[in-house]
Every structure is written in structure tokens, then in C-alpha cells.
Amino acid sequence: MLEFFHTLLFSTLEAAPPLVFAAVGASLCERAGVVNVGVEGMMRAGAFAAAAAALVMPTPLGVVVGALAGASLAAVHGLLCIRLRSDQVVSGMALNLVMLALGTFLLEAVFHSSSGSTPITQLSRLSLGSIDAVPLLGALFNHSALTYLAVLAPLLAHWALKHTRWGLRVRAVGEQPQAVAAVGIPVGTLRFSAVLLSGALAGVGGAVLSTATLDHFEHHMPSGLGFMAVAAMVFGRWTPLGAAGAATFFALADSLRIGLASSAPSLAQLVPGGVQLALPYALTLLVLAVQGQRGGAPAALGQSFDLERR
Amino acid sequence: MIALEHISKRFGSCVALDDVSLTLSPGERLAVVGENGAGKSSLMNVLYGLYQPDVGQVRFGGETVRLSSPKDAVRRGIGMVHQHFALVPTLTVAENVMLGHEPLRRGLLDARAAREEVVRAAKAAGFALDPDATVGGLTVGSQQKVEILKALARGAKTLILDEPTAVLTPQEADELFASARALSEQGTSVVLISHKLAEVLAFATRIAVLRRGKLVRADLEPAKTSPAELAALMVGEGVALDVPTGSGVAAGAKEVLRLERLEAKGLARVSLTVRAGEVVGIAGVDGNGQRELAEVLTGARPWTAGTFTLLGQQRSALTPADCHALGIAHVPEDRLRDAVVKDLTVEENVALGRHGAAPNARGPWVDVAGRHANAVTLMEASDVRPREPLLRLGELSGGNQQKLVVGRELQGTPTLVVAVQPTRGLDLLAVAEVRRRLRQVADAGAGVLVVSLDLDEVRALADTIVVLAHGRVTGTFARGEADERELGRRMLAVSA
């Protein structure tokens, strides 16, 4: 039994970081009033760029490149939504479609493969030798640095929203952009900063998949994790801590599936494999259905800002 | 000393300001009055840096200054409290006040300094405000105080109040003016933009009147003028503004509407009657059940208990279609949401809801000629300008849209009229016109129920005043039976 929980804890800590980074990023973006359903595409950009960059530079630097790739895609989103005032949901979905195709294309063009990129050196794992074997406590170790960063990121984001000038302004601009403009703060620039940060975090989330979880970019990455991150953000009521909590919960559900398969094979045989694979996604749907609509969403979410409109 | 000199401003072919010169001394309380479109707001927007004048200049203590944005104006000590507050409801009072000029300590927000600033500014203005309260949970009156604090915290030496009492109860308005007076005694100049002549006369030390972009008078002393003189200066000589009080309700007039202990979401045990020929005014602070009551009466909200008797018949339910059939006219609070479609033409809007019958239709077909003729007649009768039935409705001014809605709803012979805030945002002439129309249908035998947040309007129009607070009736008074204080107390549901 102890072994089961040990495995469960370990694999949750392995599965959660991509979701946590992406969900925390999405919450910052949407708190500033910009809808971000392009998380999936931004994660894909981060995953590919990190794996490709790590071939020619140390893997940690590759992760940074992944963050930049996510931010660049977010910059396109910002340009469309903030400068050109296009529909924010449509822009996000368009980015997802573009990245779906572009990822596959680049995989073929650069790596001449339809399944995955050339393997890289995986991020090193923090190992404390004999402690790794201690039940439960040991499950906290032998992860990559990104797992520990994923624990820090939501706390940092929460703190930044609460205690920095930027955070106060972001909280204000998502609720009442007119009030922000009225005191002379440029609404567009402020929103752009949140969108870029959100893209960078989604990029890091994607990079976890290709540099820590695996050692290469897989053609289907991030296989819906971006959408799950958006769901986690909604479930977490648009707060970094809530989003991270929900993301961890989804990761736990996934780990539970894997854990059950190894510790209770009879149960796993009873339930068809497809149903097991669909579990986290079904759970996401269930959670959103139970929660109801838009509870806690920023008031000005999705509305482009026009100074002259009243 | 601030001087606006020979200011002119045009928008296209429309002259908003025509050679206006006005001065403002420290500690002065200047009231600027005028009709909608007279140029009050334009003039203040020039002073606040929102508009650049085509001709003329702004001088601060003899120095000519170009105000190219509100930032420049704020730097010169101008603070403006708009009619629509620019506050973030989810943030606290202190966070709202510091937004945009946040005190920092080691790069982080200094919450304590922000709180102290609020406390200090609130003390100077005589406000009781908790800096940690969330703004969304405050009353409208308190939210306005937060707006004033925002201006004071930015070092405002001149405070512009744009129609500040439109949303306040009489008590709140008194408090506001007491604070503004205290500030002016400490040297702050206050400019009051208003069309409520009573408060202008009570508050200002000097009154300036604008009419169609021109300064008519700038030197009126409140002690030496009267509401009648001000109104005449504002609209021009010889324009009738008074509303006839009507013949009163005939002794045996039949009841059009009777509610007894009616319960609905937002309403508790509401009892009231409206008789033929009677204007019943519903007074109350915004959000105390007025909207719910109007919705119940127009079929938009079901009731759960109590009796609802309409034209002598007890009803168990009411739909908007029933209301149409029974002759219940509805002038809704938000016309663009509930009464008209902005992107349709004026004549299509006139036919809206009556599009299935003559003169708008013949059998299954739209009667284009009949509809057009009807629209022309209605625009003539209600003085809607410009008289172009094929114009997109959105291109009419708000006042003309409202006149069109009122005209449409009062066409034919309504039995009951439910009018919510029928004159909000209209100027003196249009207000008088709408009130006259409501009085007219009452005299013709309809029951009229007017919901208004403007107590003066309720008092001017109603034969009977019903006060709502927290969804309950807290008082019913005949005309002249209760003074403003008493009504205000009932509106806040405080016992005398």
C-alpha cells in the first residue's frame, strides 16, 4: 500500500509541472482581461523549440529557448487581440491550429521524421542517493529542477499579483480597463506584458515534456494538456494558486490511472484501456460541469479595450 | 486663479463652445448650469485636457498652459469626478486610490503608506471610509467619495463634480455638499456641473449659465437669483417648463392595478394600487426592488405569492404578450436593451412589437407606406429630431431616442403605463415634454406608474408616492404629504 502511494506521489510530481506552468500562465493572462485558449499551441512551440535548441546547447538553455518560443507565439496573440482588437478566442484557436501544423512540418523538415525529434541529453535529476529509496519522502526527490520550479511558480505569481505594482494593475485592468486608462496607465502595454509572460510560462510547460518527461519532441505533444491547463485555470477561479491546485489534481488523476494499472492489474483488465486513457479528460469535463459558468472570471475578460467606447 | 479665455470648440459642423471665457478663484464654488448640449461638459473637458480648444487658451495664474492630456491637467491640480465612476469594484478603497501612482517600498507596493494616504485624505474631506473595504460592496454614495479621494490624493486643488447627485439619496447629497464646502473652505476650488437648480442655489458662491455653446451669464449670485430666472436663462425666454399637476384622481375612479402582499424575487409583500387617472411614483435608492417591480408588471418576471389584480381581474401569471393585449405600456429603464434596436431604422423601431397589425402590416405583409406614415406622425407628435424615419436609430441622440420610445408606448389608449426612469439623461425641455405626456395619458384615464431614482421627479409627477426599500414598501404618501427628509429616511428604511 505504501509503495502504491509512493509511486502515486512520484508520478504526480512528474506529471504536474507542464500543467502547472501553463495553468499559472493562463491565469495571469486572463486576469489581465485577455482570453488565452492558445495555451496548447504555445506549449507545443515551447516543447519543439526546447528539444531542437538542446541539440546545440546545454538542455537548461534549451528550456529558456522554449520559453522564448512560447512568448513569441503569445506576442502574435497579443498583437491580434490587443492592437488589432480581433476576437480573442478565435485568435487563440487559430494559433493552436497553426502550431499543430507547423510542429509537424518542422519535425519533417528538420528531423526528417514523422514521429519524434533526435534524442537530447535529458535534464539532470536531483538525487540524494539513499534517501530516494525511503518510502514517500524519497518520492519528493529524483525529479528535474523544473518540478521544483513548478512548486515555486504559483507562489511567485500569487505574490506578484498581490504585492507588486504590476500585479495591482493587472488585477485592475482585467476588471475595469476604463478605470486604469483614466489614471493614465496604458492599457494595451499592461495587457501585453501579461500575455507575454503567460506565453513564456506555457513555453516552459511544453519544454518540460520534451526535456524532462522525455528526451525528445513527440509529434503529438502536448496532446491536449494546454486545454486541460485552461480548464484547470477556470476550475481554480482564475487565481494562480487555484489553477496550480487544479492542475495538480488533474495530474493526480492521470497518475492514479497508471498506478492502478501496476498495482491492481485485475481492475485495469476490467476497465477498457480507452476509458482509462480518457479518465483525466472526462474528469476535466465533469469538474467544469459541476462548477458552472464563469464563476470568478474577471469582469472585462475577452473585451478589447477602446478608449472612446462607452 | 484659473482663466479660460475665449474658448471655442467645434465638432464637425456643430459648435460646442463659442467664445467662452470663465475664471475660477481659489476656494470658490462655481456652478455651471445649462441644458444637455449647452457645452458644460465640453468646457470642463477642455479644462481637464480631454479636448483641445480650436481657439482660446487656458491660463493658470497668468501663465498660458497647453493641456494636451488629463495627465497635464492633473499635474496642474485639476481633479474630475465623472458621472460614471472609474473604479475597480474588486479592489479595496486603498488599492483604487493608489492605482496609477502607487507608493513603493523596496520596489514593492507599500500598502501601509497607501492606507495612511486614504485616511489622511478622508479626514480632510470629512469622509468615513474604511481603506480596506472592497469598493464593489460600497454604496453608490461611498463610491463617489472614493472618486473624490482619488482626485485629492493626486493633489487636486480644483475639483470638478459632473452631475454628482444624479445617483445619490438626499442625505448622501447633503453629505457630499457638506464635504465639498469644507474642502472649499480649505482652499480647494469646486466646480459643480448640474441641472438641479435647487442644489445649485444652495451650494454655489457663483453661477455661470451656458446656452448652446455660449456663455449667457457668469456672475449670478445665488442670493440674488431664482430657479425661474435660471431656467429662463438656460432655455431662453418664453419656453414653458412647468408640468400641470393634473385634475387629481376622481373620487370613484376605478382601480387599474392592485397588488396585495405580492412576493417575487427581490420583492417582499408589496401592496399598492394604481387608479385610473392617477400617477403613482415609486421612490427608492437604486437596487431596492424597483427593477423587479417593473419587470413583474410588464410580464418579464413571475411572482410567487400574493394577489395581482389587473383591470378588476385577478391574474395568476402575465407574459409580455398579455401586457400588449391588455394595453400595458412600458418605458423601460434601459431603452437600448429593452425597447429599441439600435441598428434598425427609426420607422422599423416605431413598428417594433406592433408589426403584426395595422398600420404596420396588411395581412401577412409589411405595409411599408402605412408604417412610414405612422412613423412620420409619431415623430411629429413627439418632436423627434431629425424627422427622418429612415435614419438608423443609433444616429439619434439619446434624448430623441427616449422621446420616440415614450411616443410609441403612449400611442393608442394604454390602460396602465409603467415608466422606469423616463427622463434620465434628458435636458429640461425634453424632461418637461415627457412629463407632460405622462400626465396627459393619466388625465385621459390611464393609470401611470413612474419609477425614478430622482426624488424631485417623483415629487413633481406623482399623485401618490410609494417608497421601496429592500424590496418592501416602507411608505405610501399622497402628494405633498411627506417632505424630502421623511422620504429619504423611508428610502433608507431608517425609522424617524
Can you summarize this structure?
The complex is a heterodimer of chains A (310) and B (496). Chain A has 310 residues and is mainly alpha-helical.
Written account of the structure:
The complex is a heterodimer of chains A (310) and B (496). Helices cover 70% and strands 0% of the residues of chain A. By secondary structure, chain A is mainly alpha-helical. Chain A is globular, with a radius of gyration of 20 Å. Chain A has helices at residues 2-31, 39-53, 59-83, 88-111, 145-163, 165-175, 177-182, 187-213, 225-235, 240-263, 265-270, 273-291. Chain A has a domain at 16-226. In chain A, helix 1 (2-31) packs antiparallel against helix 10 (240-263), helix 3 (59-83) runs antiparallel to helix 8 and helix 5 packs across helix 6. Chain B has 496 residues and is an alpha/beta fold. Chain B has three domains: 2-235, Rossmann fold (3-Layer(aba) Sandwich); 240-327 and 413-496, 3-Layer(aba) Sandwich (Rossmann fold); 336-412, no CATH class. Chain B contains 17 helices and 24 strands. In chain B, the strands form six sheets. A six-stranded mixed beta sheet of chain B has the order 6-9-10-3-11-12, sandwiched between helices. In chain B, strands 18-21-22-15-23-24 form a six-stranded mixed beta sheet, with helices on both faces. Chain B has a four-stranded antiparallel beta sheet with strand order 2-1-4-5, with helices on one face. Chain B is globular, with a radius of gyration of 25 Å. At the A-B interface, helix 6 and helix 7 of A face helix 2, helix 3 and strand 8 of B.
